[in-house]
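Quick one: structure for this chain?
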Amino acid sequence: MKAYILTTLLSLSTILATAQVVAIQNDRNNTLMLCLDNPLTIAVSGMSPDSISVSTDNGTIEKDKYNEGPGHYTYHAKKVGKAMVYVKKRTGKGRETIIDSVLFRVKSLPISPATVGGSKNGTIAQGMLMTQRSVIVWVDCCDIEAMLTVTGFTISISRKGKEIFRRNMQGPLFDDVMVDFFHTLMNGDLVRIENVMAKDCNDELRPAKPAELTIKDAYQYRKVKDTPGIDTVMVEDPVTGEAIMKITGHSDSTWIQVKKY
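Got it. Here's what it folds into:
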């Protein structure tokens, strides 16, 4: 019996002594992000980086082209969910043996609420709103300054609790109808940007939280039609190639600031 126990202990000691310890380091606590270069550092005790290979069942893993040090990899996720990272030992003749595997979570990048002029909630000056031309949704993670592609939104404007304007838009831009209406806003009017959809790097449509902005520093404007006038522009003479002055007429509409509310 003692001989059997001794033999068993010796066998177990041999297994523990020869087992490889695999370390996979990720800066985001076992969470990988869709649409990002996720850096991984992988090491196996007693083995050189050239004698191991790394693979996954969700996306791709390749050697980090920006870090030439040993054991540095970049992971790109294919979809949200789970990703198993396999570390394998090369045994020759194209064969590989799995040493260890680690399960990671893959998450979509957090995105900001809809923003206009850098604001998502609170107050916005009428003049600031009039200079804006689009709704923007940002990536809200990892100190990344990147915008998603806004595919559509709804804008509504209320005055004293009563809706006075609503418009559904395709794409991120404010059209001329909306910009003209911005000139008629008064202090306290509530501008709401909702039903905002934005497309991420995988062309997945993501809903963004609405923006609610209350108008301040409003002015009364009056729209007038410009009288025909004369514009001068410098053009190239098609014969001599010299710069000559060309006279053109113009006629357009303009918003005139009347007074502050």
